[in-house]
Amino acid sequence: MEPIVERCCGVDIGQAAVVACLLVGAAHQRPRKQVRTFRTFTPDLVALRDWLEAEGCTHVGMESTGVYWKPVYAVLEGHFELIVGNAHHIKNVPGRKTDVKDSEWLAELVRHGLIARSFVPPRPIRELRDLVRYRRKLVESRTAERNRLLKLLEQANIKLASVASNVFGVSGMDMLRALLDGTSTPGQMAQLARGRLRPKIAELERALDGYIHAHHRRLLEIQLRRLELIDLDLEAVDQLIESQLAPFREPHERLTQIPGVDAVVAAVLIAELGVDMRVFHSARHLAAWAGVSPGNDESAGKRKSGRATRGNVFLKTTLIEAATAASRKNGTYFKDKFHRLRARRGYKRAALAIAHKILVAAYHMLSTGADYRDLGESYLDRVRQHVVANHLVRRLQRLGYDVQLAPKVA
Under DSSP, is residue 33 helix (H, G, I), strand (E, B) or coil? Predict the structure, then answer.
């Protein structure tokens, strides 16, 4: 195979050092090789960049090793054609393995154009992605802390969760603070109920009559304080996300037209995909990258498995959540399709299929700038009208009826 890049570099990245192998030479010549090692401090990475610029390097290839590649990418960005490859796809042949050998192998792959580029979004999208992913971690931390608090209430035989559907609503938080204070009777705490909890005051009084001791109150105080701090952090992160989304306000609002996609899900879609869909070859390519398309495992003419592919875990789980929400939205195509698939294939496969459809809709909306158009819950009956009619006739005949169909007069 003929080389296609005359001046390229392969960089093997570690936590403490990077090894760079520079290849310089025309396609018909044996390239000149230089190997240098640099520390990962910023001045050393700048020295690496200056050396490559002085040598006229045009392409730099690296593996996506943990988070260690990101500072290297940030220093070299804008100066070279950067190629980030999946480490699983560019392994060297088995044998002697050193950092120098790895950098030489990377340089050879770059020289021959054999590294498939991983998707690295532009800097504004990367910053939005950091915020959105950190928001997810905060929500997970809050959920874990809430679960620990509920466990503490059960230990003290406070059955608030058995009566209130949301212990952490306005009424529930007032009751928890009253429990922490320790001066109110169960009847007084039950009177703090608001809204739909008011008819349950008698039951709340019994639920709040437990065996809560000083030990429980000390733990409850710490847990409530942690929940308040997480809520404050979430508000701050939401404000940062809001400001970071300002340049993408139009596509963000357009994506919320999709059933099941709220403002948070739309922000995740933009953070993980960006707004330029030209980086993906097609909607199918995007679905495979996200991990919401069926697998393809076939040998000797037999299909062995259709298990979904692995993909972007942040995007995939968010799409599944959006699909679950869309399955509950009345009058939509997604709800009708979900329940048809659920009857035949089960809940998980149905949710994955709707997640796939949501992603495909988002791809086309971001590609063309078009608004979302719902097909309607009767769409599948209309496109298969003859099949649906025959199925219903057979069901009625099994019940003992004679059925004759006649078209409805307009």
Answer: strand
